[in-house]
Every structure is written in C-alpha cells, then in structure tokens.
Amino acid sequence: MYFFARGYFWYRAGRKTKSGEENPGNRFRGTEPGKGAGMAEEVMIKENKMGTQPLRSLLLSMSLPIMISMIVQALYNVVDSIFVAMIEEDALTAVSLAFPVQNLLIAVSVGTAVGINALLARYLGEKEYEKANAVAENGVFMGIVCYILFLIAGLTCITPFYRSQTSSANIISYGEDYLSIICIVSIGIFIQAIFEKLLQATGKTIYTMFTQGTGAIINIILDPILIFGHFGFPQMGVKGAAVATVIGQCIAGILAVFLNHKVNKEIRMRLKGFRPSLSVISHIYMIAVPTIVMQAIGSVMVYGLNRILIVFSSTATAVFGVYFKLQSFIFMPVFGLNNGMVPIVAYNYGAGKKDRVIKTIRLAAFYGIGIMLAGSVIMHIFPRQLLMLFDASDLMLQIGVPALRIISLCFGFAGYCIVIGSAFQALGHAWYSMFVSIARQLLVLLPVAYLLAQTGVLNMVWWSFPIAEFMSVGMTTFFLIKLYRKVISHIGEEKAGA
Fold it and tell me: How many domains does the chain fold into?
C-alpha cells in the first residue's frame, strides 16, 4: 500500500507545465502601498529561505536542531524513570500510570502550539503580517487559559484518577505526589510549547534546540539531587522527580520568551489593548483540535491498556510504561522532523509552490521511515539491555523482552503515517489525521488488545500494536491520495490566474 501511494505521489509530482518553468504566479509580488512595505522587505530576506532554499538542506537545517533537542527531552524522560525505578517498582508503576494525564497535558499544549505554528507560517507565506501577529497574540492567550484548566484538575482530580486504575495504596500515594505537581505547575510547558512554535514558524528552529536542551539538562541534573537529597537538598522521592520536571519546563519557557523578543523580528505581539479574537482563536483550533484529539486519544488508549494489563500484573503495566519511555527515543526524532517540515509545507502552500510542497513531504517521509526502521532494529537486538536500564526484575525481563520485539515490528509503518499525518495538518486537513488516529487507537488497538487478553496469554496483547498499524497505513494512504486530488494538485492555480 505504501509503495503504491509513493509511486502515485511521485508520478503526479513529476508532471510539469509545458514550458517547464515555475509558475510566475508563485513569485513574490511585493506589498501594497500602506501595508508596511519596509517591514515586508526586511521580513522577506529572512523568511525567503522556506520558499527558495534547496529543500533537502532546508528540511535538515530546520529539523535537526529540533530533533536533537527532542532526543535530549526523550533522554530526560528516560532518566526520570530510571531514577524513580531506584526507589521501588511501585514508584515506577505510579509514574507509568500517570502517563495518560501527562500525555493529555502535552496534547493540549503542543496541539495549541501546532495550530499557531501552521496558521502563522501560512500567513507569513501569504505576506499577511498583521494576521500573523494576531495569531501569535491569541495563541499566547489561549495557552494561559488552558493552563488554568490543568491547574484546577491538579487540585481536584488526581486521587480519583489513580483509584480508577489500582487499589494499591502505595501506588496511589506515589501517584498523588508526582502528578499533582506536574499539573499544578504546568504553566512552564504551555509557555515553552507556544513560544518555541513561534520560533519554528519563522524558520528559527536552531533556537528551539537551546530552549528544549536547557530544560532537559536542568531536569536531568536536578533529578538525582531532589529525588535522593544530594548537596544538602531534602530527599523528596517521587516528588523530587516532578519538581525537577516543572523547574526545567519553566526555565525553558522563560528562555523561549526571551529569544522570541530578541530574534523573532517577523512577529510583533502587542499586549497593550489586546482583546481576544474569536475568529482568530477558531482558526487556530481548526488546526489544533485534531492534533489535540489525536494526542488525547493516546491518553485514552494508554489508560484502557493499563486497565487491561494490570489484570495480568502491575509489572505488565510497568513494562508498558517503560516501553513508552524507550520508544520516545525513536519517535521524538520523527516528531522533530515533522516540526521542521510543517512550516515549510505551510509556507509554500500559502505561497502557491506545489513542487516544493510535494518534495518536502516526500523527503520527510523517506527520513521518517528510515529513523523508525533503525529503532525497530535496536529494539529487536537489545531488548534485555534496554530494560536493565530500569533495574528490571526477572519477571519484568520475561514480560518486557517479547513486548519490545513484537511492538517494534510496526515502527516503519508508523513513521510513514506520522509524517503524512503532519502533512495533512500543514495543508489544513488535520481532520484526516484525527480520523486515522481515532480508528487506530480506539476502534482497532484497544478492542483487539481486549480480545487477545481473553486468551490469558499476555504476549498476545502486544500483537494489537502491529495489527492497528497495518490498518493505519491503509487509511493514511487513502486520505493522501484524496488530498492530492483535492488540494495538492491545485496549489498555485489561484495565483497563476490572478
């Protein structure tokens, strides 16, 4: 299915006009009198690389800094769990059970930021600078609103959440200590996500490497100090892991705000006299909601799978949590690749440059699949060594080794679906990605996992992941072909006829 879609996509991409020249309607036409021509000229010099620079070097230059910073983020997630595992297995289980709420937090913050990113990049491509500024201002406002909702949840919902998954008082106690801090002080992750996406939307991805890397390194340094009480600090246990996380996020967020003020001259946010715009917010969330829903569905899936696995043992749940920490090393670089791809695709879509849109998606898919296949090989060869990073018991190794090998069989297909799903978002059709995600995780993965669990054989449950991924490839390919016919093949026609 994938190779059929790729062949079709490349064939259509190779078709040119009779003259073989670039559509003249795609060229920059300047600015109208009275609409900030001086500003437009200054911005054009800095932003034109997304419309003119060779795509291979452009994609890599925009993606690599984000990929590096996201790998560092994945490292601190793993280090976090490694130190927590040193306390005891119940502490690791509690952190694993926290994943659905943490994932929902990431879904809302990053999803909102993705909506800002794609819409802002598109307006910059269309030379609509006032609209771009309005997107940034309203996006920051919505980030604060979303934080307040998680603050309330952190104060009221943590204990019921844990009691719905386990009756172990020890696990519940650890979970309350950890997750309440994560939610109550989540302002850092909202500030960080939004202001990093503002930098990415204007092509300044190198700075996001500094912000994410700084936050991650601070977290890694503080983890052992606060968990075990080194250098005169009190021994905080699981609370220390949470405190280290939110401190890293807050510092990264402050740095992202500072960098935007210093280097992001394309965006001018005016806080004085600001009034929320329902129209701008609705446009942001037309792109953001599918992203949020897709990520939030992951929370529902993990919550449901935890309920299925804990019937076998709490160790099975801990293994599933460890898998998610480990797979982030593989998925995060692909997400970083997507973060570099989305503004390029959105910008050239707005500028009417069809060939650049197609080639960017094609390159990103090639790199994404390659990264995921490499990760699959690593998990097949070194599952025992990976699990031992978390002080795995004999039972955890017995459960975990086949789990990592089975689940990672589908990584190559996942890479294809992730990249194409982000392309849907960049082209304003994020709903396609949402439909695929809902079908994969709620309509296939969870029901199949439940049915396979009825066999009483734990290893059978892990096969629900490859089964769901095969379905995802089929749906993604169907929507890709549909989007090509409906949108991609017509990019630039309106400008050409102008």
Answer: 1
